[in-house]
Amino acid sequence: MNKFKGSIAILGSGNIGISLAKGLVKSNYAEPGQISLTRRNISGLSALAEQGFVVSDDNAAVVANADIVVLAVLPQQLNNLLSQIEAVVDDKKQLFISVASGVSCIDIRSKLGENVQVIRAMPNTAIAIGQSMTCVATDNATAENVAEVIRMFETVGSVVKINEDLMTSATALCACGIAFFLRAIRAASQGGVEIGFHADEALKMAVQTAKGAADLLLLMQSHPEQEIDKVTSPKGCTIAGLNEMEHNGFSSSLIKGIKLSAIKAGALYTKE
Questions:
Q1: Does the model's pTM come out above 0.90?
Q2: Has 118 been labeled as part of a binding site?
Q3: Segments of the chain with pLDDT less than 50
Q4: CATH superfamily, domain at 8-166
């Protein structure tokens, strides 16, 4: 991978910001010294400082020296952050990446200036193990900058570029979706306990079975129903179990949950 030449500021270094920083270094995209991490209480970043990352509690000072700025705070903290840095923004050389849910590119430009290039990125918590599903979108950034952001997030998983009006939907399907699949695995393990396995055995079996199902689709590039057909035989036990789940609304409840999460995701940020 060609190394990035400039400096990167990650403002609000929680789980996602720190995971991105580690991924960029692990993949040889950047050196720790090129990446600045900020947090109000920097004592939580001491281990990263020892690894060579620059740590700071001064957002404006860090942004003044950065080429790429990652806004990695919660939506409700974003306006305060933008007011801290607006005076040092240089729209000629800086690119802003926002991972704040429900905040549009226009929302950010309205605070930082209309010529600022903004790209939104929506990773999920599997970023911690380099297995994120990240969606990126923009309304004004150059193709080169979009390619750079895709390259950055490919160090921590898979990336899809989408239209910006689909970003709240991506939040529901990919970011909230982690929790939905985890709950399904948890339920399967509870079923395993009820049919005779110890809890730790049942969980291990459910987890690996879920991973196998996902990898089947990824590696075979097939459709779920194709793989389901291979498991269901006439009058068999698999189809009996599947149909019982469907009678109780399994697919329907998952679809309805994703739709409600998308509505909620669109209402997390207030412009004032």
A1: yes
A2: no
A3: none
A4: NAD(P)-binding Rossmann-like Domain (3.40.50.720)
